[in-house]
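chain below, 189 aa
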Amino acid sequence: MEKQKQMLKIYLKALKNDLETLKLLTPNSYQKNIYTIDYQSLKQKGYKNLIFDVDNTIMPLNDIKASEKLQTFFQNLAKDFNICLLSNNSHRRVKPVGDALHIPYLAASNKPLTIAFQKALNTISADTKNTVLIGDQLLTDIAGGNQFGIYTILVNPIENNYSIQTNISNIFQNVLIRRITKLKDQKYY
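prediction:
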């Protein structure tokens, strides 16, 4: 319940064009998907740790079997980065993914609450200065990561198949993206 309250509070403040809240919802970077991110550039900038959202960031919502492409991708990333999966979805959903990718995971994490991000950092012995969060949701992934001081990358959702709760969140997200884009175009920040 605390997670939903925080998300609603962020959304309502953003609707009032609260600049601090809109900054909180603005990712440091935007990429089409996890495969278009320049990980070597991140490494050169001193980033050593990656936290990934699961659903519709690294794989479709209803898939529990990680593709060979995804497994190879994460095997290669693990050569240069410490990686953790951070999801609001259930243990039953996230465990098979983490196990298949050989990556530590946190399920039912309650993003955007800062405790979720602290647990992820603790899991991979990381700190905010050398960690990147990659996700597809402004109100959970980006707001939480920015609030905690982690470099954030927003990616497009893999598919539009979501739970009812996430569909509602996506409606909010589309409104917020328009507001953030409008403010950036007007050079408010």
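The mean pLDDT is 88. The radius of gyration is 16 Å.
thats it, cya
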